[in-house]
Amino acid sequence: xxxxxxxxxxxxxxxxxxxxxxxxxxxxxxxxxxxxxxxxxxxxxxxxxxxxxxxxxxxxxxxxxxxxxxxxxxxxxxxxxxxxxxxxxxxxxxxxxxxxxxxxxxxxxxxxxxxxxxxxxxxxxxxxxxxxxxxxxxxxxxxxxxxxxxxxxxxxxxxxxxxxxxxxxxxxxxxxxxxxxxxxxxxxxxxxxxxxxxxxxxxxxxxxxxxxxxxxxxxxxxxxxxxxx
Length: 229
Known about the structure:
- This protein is mainly α.
- It has a domain at 91-218: Multidrug efflux transporter AcrB transmembrane domain (Multidrug efflux transporter AcrB transmembrane fold, Up-down Bundle).
- It is 58% helix and 5% strand.
- The chain has helices spanning 11-15, 64-76, 91-121, 125-131, 134-148, 154-183, 188-219, and strands spanning 18-20, 26-28, 45-47, 50-52.
- It has a two-stranded antiparallel ribbon with strand order 1-2. A two-stranded antiparallel sheet has the order 3-4.
- β1 and β2 form a beta hairpin.
- The longest helix is centred in the C-terminal third of the chain and has 32 residues, at 188-219.
């Protein structure tokens, strides 16, 4: 409800608004309320039926993860009342959601690859051995991010998923040739040694081909949207 324009031209008009008690007695609004000029929000936002106040800022030459940590450290030092809840949203919320989806993608991809290899090798042991090659890809990723001073962001995480596929492919080539030699009656240790020497060149060729194919994309100076961790 709002008064007409001619009834609210001044603050005194607001003070003189008549009110009626339960007994029918008329009093002025100024008798039961303090009326004055104060600053307030132009728009009141609510989320889940609760008042919401947004504090927004931009990031300049810093990763989103570092800024998020600084904000959380500063908030931890503040005495925040219990009735006030603080949530970090926008890009930070989208970043966390993207990483959750990528982790689920990584796990799901590993399960599907294991199932396909189990059908191919007709064994549960050989795919299990192949999957042990995936952790070694993390070592290369860690050193690569360290030397290039790149943070673990969504794009680099996608690269990690692709690299895991390359590592699994190389392991399949090696394990498959070991099984061939084993079926020929060659002892296990000798079969592993001969397979390593024989399959080193095709594995290197496959890896280098993938590396050279992805290199233009990696060193491209073009800009884009990225979210760092």
